[in-house]
Amino acid sequence: xxxxxxxxxxxxxxxxxxxxxxxxxxxxxxxxxxxxxxxxxxxxxxxxxxxxxxxxxxxxxxxxxxxxxxxxxxxxxxxxxxxxxxxxxxxxxxxxxxxxxxxxxxxxxxxxxxxxxxxxxxxxxxxxxxxxxxxxxxxxxxxxxxxxxxxxxxxxxxxxxxxxxxxxxxxxxxxxxxxxxxxxxxxxxxxxxxxxxxxxxxxxxxxxxxxxxxxxxxxxxxxxxxxxxxxxxxxxxxxxxxxxxxxxxxxxxxxxxxxxxxxxxxxxxxxxxxxxxxxxxxxxxxxxxxxxxxxxxxxxxxxxxxxxxxxxxxxxxxxxxxxxxxxxxxxxxxxxxxxxxxxxxxxxxxxxxxxxxxxxxxxxxxxxxxxxxxxxxxxxxxxxxxxxxxxxxxxxxxxxxxxxxxxxxxxxxxxxxxxxxxxxxxxxxxxxxxxxxxxxxxxxxxxxxxxxxxxxxxxxxxxxxxxxxxxxxxxxxxxxxxxxxxxxxxxxxxxxxxxxxxxxxxxxxxxxxxxxxxxxxxxxxxxxxxxxxxxxxxxxxxxxxxxxxxxxxxxxxxxxxxxxxxxxxxxxxxxxxxxxxxxxxxxxxxxx
Length: 592
What we know:
This protein is of the alpha+beta class. Helix content is 50%, strand content 17%. It is built from 17 helices and 20 strands. Strand 4 and strand 5 (184-188) form a beta hairpin. Mean pLDDT is 77; it is low at 61-115.
């Protein structure tokens, strides 16, 4: 999760830098056409783009499927394929079955962590962010504490004491305003002529009304997040400069020439007395001597903008913001897609991930059982990941359970959820209904299994009536279906059911990978043809089954999607632990 955040920050930083450079190049034009106030607030667009990670997915063109391409068609299993399967599978040793951590739900995230360049950059960024944020806050709080100790509260005409506290202190040379929620106007401990004081108050109250201090704090936060980007500092400097200029123009907008001269003389007087450096997160009428000439030039040449110009300035700002956010969103989506493509490429060559989808027989089709099988040819291993049917998937701002994503019968939504939301590559899928599951178990003569608890459950809506006694017994197709679908009596809810499902699958492999079932090959073929939909090519199946011949059953590893069950708006969801899932995926389901 942290690495994904860092990657998003890099994208927004790049887009923000391009936008900042563009605004700097166009500043002579925009300043003349729209004015300094527009330029001042235009920098907020850069800040928003740099702090707002979005993902925009463009519509994908539907790829052309050649007539002989079997990847997206219903797979018909040939009798020759099934014979090859049984022939190779029966050679797998089945003695001493001892599966590892049956139903394991978590992995040790501290184990097998590899630190690449991106990982190191990510942690350096995080450390830098924390240091900068800490330093800025400490400096600010230290300044406030010193001010409170070395100042006195005074009354000031024209200032609402309930909204703004006025203090006089010897720590500063020129007036300034500080404070986020409760602003303080700080005046130097000197005699200030009444005329000059009026201009000072006009200036600082303009800052207050425009919430300039909030703007500066926002810029500081963005600058802290993007501390590695030189443009972040440039933007902050531009904001400080344009803040004072736009404030000046706002103050003198309704002044005559004499009043404007008095205002400028007040600034010159304050600048001549200023000896200390500008303070952090403050507004100051005489903050930068180098800006005085430009500020006075802007005041003399100020012209009032027409309503039409103001309208076009707002439209231009909205267009810039929209284009920048769109570009950032598209780049973010492409970066995510590239990460998935790399994972897919790594998996396809030496590792195959197959998503098994078991659907119930209700009118509203649901993915009742989800398992991901990962065959690793590099180390001759097989890993099985069970995905709880209540796993939370958020699409378009709506919470949904992964089991309900294929209510319209489209398994592609399930595949997309596993690939995009869970970030687990999927090469192929196989969808089977429970009718096929029951018939296959019956053809194989049932499975001997130790039922862990008494199972009693009735659901007339699904025509599901479960009645299984605890203990070792032979489960035919109907009882096997009841076993894998039962979920009401486990302390862990659906997680308990997933553990039993994994145990049953392991017993099925242990007991039924045997040459004596060759005689049933024709019946099995018929059931697969009628009840299994897949994009798994026959040639690929035969190749992968040969690789299975090298795997000992006891080396098969089983896992459960890491996470916890949570109650949200009256419904229970299985909420994924992204950190543990990322670690598990990198270790077992993506080839390193």
